[in-house]
Give the backbone structure.
Amino acid sequence: MRKALSVLTLAIALTSGQAFADQSTLAALQSAGIALTGAQARTVAAAHGDALADAIANIVAANSEAATTIVAAAVGAAPDQAAAIVAAAITAAPDQASAIIAAAITAAPDQAPAIVSEAVAAAPGQAPDIAAAAMTAAPDQASAIITAAVTAAPAHAASISDAANNAAGNNTASAKNRSSNTTATSNPPNSVGGPDTAPISAARAQTAATNDADNSATSADTSSAATSSSPSSSGGGGSASPN
């Protein structure tokens, strides 16, 4: 009898709007190519609030190689649950904390400080790596990210600061490289000092040398013609005898 009531309760729940409150999260996971069992699919579809984070954590634990894809899809579909989802996912796959943070913040950048706070609280020993990954994913929120990380793990404040500074330095270097590449690409071909100047100068030098050679040959031909048309010197075979 009790079993029959449980089945009936489940059937009623599955037909209610509350049961499918996170149908969009289920659809996002399926669209991302995550293979789910029937039980996992039903759990996600029926989950809401903290239950969704637990459901995602169970899926991450069963598919740790796809942790970042799972988290990105779930956070993108339920950004208001991003921090809880990330904390649960890191607990399920702690060796992928940095990648999970980057994927989550990329999917919901506005939630970066909250994500960092919950993630560091879940794995304080990885606070520096979490802060660095967050800084790389959302450099414009650096100050808020550092504050969130230090507040969640004050004992790691110094290492968090060092990791954040390194991440900021790497971001600056990358930005400079992109700027340098853009400037080099925008240099118009054949401009003075541009990348094609050397080939053009060489071509002009070759043309000038050819012209000089042609001019020298023409001068030589003209001189020879003038000499052959002048009167021969005394005793020459071609001189005219006086009448």
